[in-house]
Amino acid sequence: MTILGIETSFDETSAAFVRDGINCDYQFFSTSMDKHSKTGGVVPEVASREQSIYIIPVLQNVLGQAARHQGSKTDEITKLSQSNNLSHHKPLTNIDAIAVTIGPGLIGSLLVGVETAKSLAYAWNKPLIPVNHMLGHIYGAWLTHGNQMNDLWPKLALLVSGAHTELILMESHHRLYKVGWTLDDAAGEAFDKVARLLDLPYPGGPRLSKLAESGNPHAIKFPLPMPQKDNFNFSFSGLKTAVLNYTRQNPNANKADIAASFQHTVVTSLVHKTLAAAQHFNAQEVILGGGVAANRLLRQTLTSSLAPLPCKIPDFAYTTDNAAVIAAAAFYHQNFADPLTVQADPSLELPHRADT
Ligand code: KG4
Ligand code: ZN
User: Fold this and answer.
1) pLDDT of amino acid 77
2) For a Cys staple, 288 with which of 26, 92, 175, 293, CB 3.0–4.6 Å?
3) Does the beta carbon of 136 lie inside 6 Å of ligand 1?
4) What are the distances in angstroms from CA 313 to CA 118, 296, 316, 321, 327?
5) DSSP codes, 161-185
């Protein structure tokens, strides 16, 4: 089964073809990140305007790649790549369904993808699958490790993005619950805010972790957030304040040491809670997902701390926002919906477990 995925929840405009939930055949994306570097963070209005500029070219690109590989005639592909109204063209390739992120995210950005997907599903007469963005972050592991991901249950997923930090218990594809979450800032948000304190440009996470490579992670002892093991929640705003206070009191401190010590504390907190939850719920394997999953220290520390428990880390390409993970999630969650009634929901959540 081939699913065309569309993701526009934040500052990436992305489309991908995924086969059977594990093979990403074609993908293409555009990002408005450069625009947000100038303002030091994402301005929702700017992000949604960029989404509407890039959605058609991104789709033309990915449909063109697929058509070319599947032997369509050159003049048909040229027509497709020049058309501003894709819905007038029948897809030149085999698509069994269209999947789209409906939330959580920025409403203006989400609407661009959702309305485009609805129009294409209606015009092409294809089933439409609405997908929760956080569910998508789980399925980067399937695109990376393939069908072996279907062997071990229950699983625990640590999802770390710019707006969310969550632990998801998966008893099966369809029985999954949120068992831990952040009480304030998300891990990625803390990386971005501390990066700004250190005068690093947006997006701060990757830049802070690069700077940390040359610092001493034990130079400064920041307080470990929420060390208790009787719940699986996170909190990063106190840590961010501790870094702010430290930089004010020590204006000449080595920035690389601050970055390394902060990163070490965030990673220790994430790993500590994941390990506790994995033991509590008897997880047979752990999955990592979301933009902060690109962080090398987190990838290494989580894998080594959990051993011998298997830890499935996605390829870098499937950590930050992308349409391939949305299409992969849709394969395992074929909740077909009427294209005329699907709605974007900026505060969509995965279900909570009743006892958490
Ligand atoms: O999942 P994602 O692409 O977007 C959201 O759904 O929010 O995550 C973006 C977040 C940003 O906060 C970014 O700074 C962070 O992921 N990030 C990182 C790294 N790469 C991206 N944080 C720490 N280390 C990294 N290497
Ligand atoms: Zn994301």
Assistant:
1) 67
2) 293
3) no
4) 32, 11, 9, 15, 18
5) -SS-EEEEEESSSS-EEEEEEBSS-
Kindly list the protein residues that place their beta carbon closer than 5 angstroms to ligand 2, a single-atom ion.
Answer: 161, 321
Q: Which ligand is nearest to the CA of 319?
A: 1
Matching residue, tokens 């305007």: 49
Determine the Cα–Cα distance for residues 164 and 175; give it in Å rounded to an integer: 20
Taking the C-alpha atoms of residue 182 and residue 190, their distance in angstroms, rounded to an integer, is 11
For 192-216, what is each residue's pLDDT tens digit?
999 999 999 888 999 999 999 999 9
75 pLDDT above the threshold of 80: no
How much distance in Å is there from the Cα of 188 to the middle of ligand 1?
5
Reported as a pLDDT band with limits 50, 70 and 90, residue 88 is low
Cα(16)–Cα(14) distance, integer angstroms? 7
Count of Cβ atoms closer than 10 Å to residue 268 Cβ: 18
Residue 39 — very low, low, confident or very high, per pLDDT cuts 50/70/90?
confident
pLDDT at 78 over 80: no
For residue 344, how many other CB atoms are within 10 A of its CB? 24
pLDDT of residue 52: 97
- Cα separations (Å) of 24 from 4, 17, 289? 10, 6, 17
Q: Is the pLDDT of residue 94 over 90?
A: no
